[in-house]
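2024-03-11 09:14:02 INFO worker-7 job=invfold-0412 stage=load source=structure_tokens
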């Protein structure tokens, strides 16, 4: 979050999230870029575009959370080849 006045600009970390949940999602994304090919590719593309490590990792975490929400909505199990099958159809 950025706070600005006329002369100063301060960037602070928002405390709107439970810290243990934030830590769990951080480690989930960190491990995903090590073991999941799609997450690794997304992370590499973001880094290539100039994003910092933290920003790229947060983007990977956002994608993982979106996939999890979609799985819960559809009541489906995780299928790592889902996007490949959907592109082929």
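2024-03-11 09:14:09 INFO worker-7 stage=emit residues=89
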């Amino acid at each position: 979050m950025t706070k600005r006045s006329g002369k100063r600009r301060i960037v602070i970390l928002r405390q709107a999230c439970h810290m243990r949940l934030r830590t769990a999602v951080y480690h989930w994304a960190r491990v995903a870029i090590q073991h999941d090919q799609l997450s690794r590719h997304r992370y590499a593309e973001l880094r290539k575009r100039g994003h910092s490590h933290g920003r790229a990792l947060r983007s990977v975490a956002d994608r993982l959370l979106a996939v999890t929400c979609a799985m819960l909505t559809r009541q489906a199990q995780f299928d790592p080849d889902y996007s490949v099958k959907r592109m082929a159809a």
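2024-03-11 09:14:09 INFO worker-7 stage=report msg="Strands lie at 2-4, 9-11."
2024-03-11 09:14:10 INFO worker-7 job finished
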